[in-house]
Amino acid sequence: MTVLAAVGLGLLIGLVIGTLGGGGSILTVPALVFVLGLSAQDATSASLVIVGGTAAVAIAGHARSGHTDWRAGVFLVLAGLPASLLGTRLNLLVDQDVLLLAFAGLMLVAAAGMLIRRREQDPAAGDRARPAASAPGRAGRSARLVAAGLAIGFLTGFLGVGGGFVIVPALVVALRFPMARAVGTSLLVIALNAVVALVARAGGGSFDWQVIVPFTAAAVAASLAGTLLADRLPARQLTRSFAALLVVVAAYVGLRALLSLT
Questions:
Q1: pTM of the prediction?
Q2: What is the largest CA-CA distance in the chain?
Q3: Are 80 and 149 in contact (CB under 8 A)?
């Protein structure tokens, strides 16, 4: 029964990731905790495998299309390495309900970020970069990338999420990446950060492979199917619906955590 539930949830989350180009991974931890019964710490460890594996598979198509900037991706990972290790350490120390409360707050931030990003995106501009005149200087770009790398690394280590909702806007704003290139590079950062966080957890966490393997396999398969559906569905409505879902799940997770803490 657990395997069937893992497959079902993996299909749902993978479909969201493939259709929206990210975002679905933030539902992985709540699904693992409240549906499959994992502890918050074990769920964040499992999420790293699921999210990292799905991103690694998705990179292939983007790389073939030339939409992955390997240099910028590696730079972000290296910049966030200390924060990733710190986040991993804190994950093993904090109370489970505090971890879930932080996760609920992150979901609200992600929902707001998705709505803002969708509203500001100019459909007529497509994948073209913004005008070079408005681009920040090299020092400003580097500073923003370091800040983004630290934030992404900490989120990955502490909460087991990919941080795509932070990476994509950071690349678009800091380096004026076209959206397709930002998404492809984001997947690289997610996969590499997941590896870093998993190495840091070696010996300090447990992995329920009976849940992780079918969940990951289903998520990967569904993400590929979602990619095919992406061009046939109304992106604006999908984004709004998913943001609303994040708010509802965040409210549920936050309320459960607060009740357990009191």
A1: 0.76
A2: 57
A3: yes
